[in-house]
Amino acid sequence: MSSILSRLPFDETLIYINGEWTKSQASQTCRVENPDTAETIATVPECNARDLDLAVQAAYSAFHDGPWVNEYSGAQRRDALLALATAIEESRQDIEELESLNTGKPINDVRVELDDTIDLFRFFAGYADKVEGRHIAAQTNRNLEGYTVKVPVGVVGFINAFNYPICLLAWKVAPALAAGCTVVFKPGPQTPLTTQYFAHLLHKTGRFPKGVFNVVLGGVGVGQALVDHDLVDKIGFTGSVATGKQVIRSTASTRNVRCTSVELGGKSPGVVMPDADLDKTAKLVVSGCMANAGMNCNALTRLWVHRSIYDEFMPRLKAAAEALVLSTPQDTATEMGPLIDKRQYDRVLEYIRIGRDEDQAALLTGGQPALGRGYWIQPTVFYNVSPTARIATEEIFGPVLSVLEPFDELDEVIAIERKNEFGLAAGIFTRRHQDIAKFTRKLRSGTIWVNNYNALYSYLPFGGFRNSGFGRELGYESFDGYLVPKSIIDDISY
Ligand code: NAD
């Protein structure tokens, strides 16, 4: 057993509610695996509705009666978040090791995710003391002064996907706490451990009053209970389209409607134009698709290659995919890890079968399990795929790239992509600025990469169109999503 698991600074069989580590009210537990080997590495509680209620009540009391919102200044919240960023930084090696074990992510990737996590807490700390309203000069009656003040939304319930446990936690929790909200957080059931580590660090800073941050663990049951709880003011959800739609329906059926932000799936197109640097682009496409073993909402999974370079490009793509190093995630040479669990592994193998048998696509490389253990699958590339094939239109969430049939005109691509069910991300590889301008103006995608792929910044908003969801994470837009304006109208002649 690895060293980090034997020296966890928290008891993973407990949950963090109201500033304390407590026993769950439920008797059920969840097994936590290492996807590299499929071995069990921990057992955590599977929370029930009673645990959830305690967590929400704690967040509700902290919001309405506690000092976080009612006594702390923005500068105090800023300093608390900065102290938390430093605490994460000081424990980063432990967290990296734990995240890599629990997710199977290559250790180098986890290091980048921890850089981002720390940066996000510092970035959003900077907004905590800059909450601004507007003064609107009286228009018709000079005695009426109108102005807005922005106040925190309230209790926020977060439901996360498994694919970037600590980093997506930072995307959500850092802006929410900076805005003065209180939080109940549920990680993906497969990946609870770094969320618990985070709760331990937050507690250790001594800067966050009880009830400001609470964790519940488990899957559908406790997630649904969080969505259904009447004392929750906002739900921030990241996950699949099917669950996202269920969350939207549920939030509309509770006694109080509440705001919702849903970050859902993707089937993101990339376009290789005739003037592209083919060697560079092949590598960018492969990392754009295979990063995080393809379990990436913005993965580049539908590739358009211009007819004039199609045949030249395929061998380069094949070589780039086959060059990826699949090995023990804790080895610094490893470039791609396993799928997260058996369900995801089976799903990806089933899509590879569909690609071959139903879509009749040609296999360029991969298509098999790898390493003979755990949940490993080879980087897989199909080509000559119809743009309407299932593997070209459905989110697979694994290392599977569909190179579509060759195209002649960028307008054709744009017209077809208008019908893409998703609109999370896209990429184009060319130096022709007329094509770049056409593509970036016409495509309804939340993020568009030009001659690169997957780069994200704390200050640039991220989110989707259509079935990729609504609401934005990162950037000022995300922070603003945890605030609501109140309008104050003051009769100064009174
Ligand atoms: P999922 O929908 O199965 O689960 C997501 C979360 O919802 C989990 O925590 C799960 O326990 C919870 N959940 C399940 N049923 C629920 C219910 N009825 N009510 C409330 N919560 C419920 O998704 P997943 O397999 O964990 O994640 C993969 C998906 O997430 C992919 O579709 C991916 O594209 C998407 N994703 C999107 C983004 C983004 O920013 N757009 C980022 C990461 C992942």
Automatic annotation (TrEMBL):
One of its GO terms (biological process) is acetate biosynthetic process. The active site is at E263. InterPro entries: Ald_DH/histidinol_DH, Ald_DH_C, Ald_DH_CS_GLU, Ald_DH_N, Aldehyde_DH_dom. The keyword Nucleotide-binding does not apply. The keyword Transferase does not apply. Keywords: Oxidoreductase. GO terms for molecular function: oxidoreductase activity, acting on the aldehyde or oxo group of donors, NAD or NADP as acceptor. Residues 21-488 form the Aldehyde dehydrogenase domain. Belongs to the aldehyde dehydrogenase family. This is Aldehyde dehydrogenase domain-containing protein. It comes from Coemansia pectinata. The lineage of its organism: Eukaryota, Fungi, Fungi incertae sedis, Zoopagomycota, Kickxellomycotina.
